[in-house]
């Protein structure tokens, strides 16, 4: 909302020479929120890129560890069933190994046994652009059969923080587990809002809130007891209630946010860490301690993990809290809320008569 | 190509043999996890570490 206003003011003031300058393409292709405090750097983007490249270059392990990303992509795409539209151009931001494309080509996830089998979601989509900064990750599954079923372009981004697309380009923007390593999340959401056509939706899924709280707490306790201090091992994550505000700040309308906990059981905390590494989701927080975690700390953390969070059968749970968001780009012909006080029916009467 | 066992897997295998010691250490920490300080449970930890080291040594033979 904020930037829209300032852009209108700019356009109104831009006459003559300035106007031709705007139309010649010198304009930035993405939007900034108004100048504010400097962007906080939290993650090392180069480290993250390296981790993804390395993870994806181990084909076998990387595919095995894709269970979480595939599941989340399916749950995200399932939500498209609620929107009765088709989409000429779709963008997948932070595509990882094109898990969204895979989910879109899968048979209808929510099939009703009483109804004839409906087509996979990909029939609603004419063209998908999968954008990701890690080339190896992006092209990992380029030879898989699902690529034949979907009209898709893979695009390697120079930076995961910048979307090189023109304004009003896409009819739908999806993002499955691609936003939690973005330093400037408000800026990213503004860019997404900018490249959407009016009255088109952004749907995203990201890790948030209590994700990996078991690992976070046991590593903290272990480091505190073994070494007498802490260093960050699990990323700071956006909270559920932050996301609504973030979407609104980026100019989205009719915002919806909901959460979903996925709990995965592992034989021990080392298996969890190995899988995180194979997903390309290892620690990339700036200011973390370089090098591997000390063995003493690992040994202590595993014992604490079991004692504090362990299941009765000897496995250890890991919680992944998924935050799903949907927001619509503002448009004049969009359904608007009615003015206050214009209601004709008393909700109390309706509820009491039941 | 035979798959190489990663060091973390060897580590995990040795640690898994020490669950009684690990439970003792874990209980010591969890008993009052709001006031953990350095070497709070050092005796329990050393027992756990000794067990791990002996497991590691016996695997090598």
Automatic annotation (TrEMBL), chain A:
SUPFAM superfamilies: S-adenosyl-L-methionine-dependent methyltransferases. Keywords: Methyltransferase, Transferase. InterPro entries: Malonyl-ACP_OMT (IPR050602), SAM-dependent_MTases_sf (IPR029063). Pfam families: Methyltransf_23. This is Arginine-hydroxylase NDUFAF5. It comes from Apiospora phragmitis.
UniProtKB/TrEMBL annotation, chain B:
This is CHCH domain-containing protein. It comes from Apiospora phragmitis. InterPro entries: NDUFAF8.
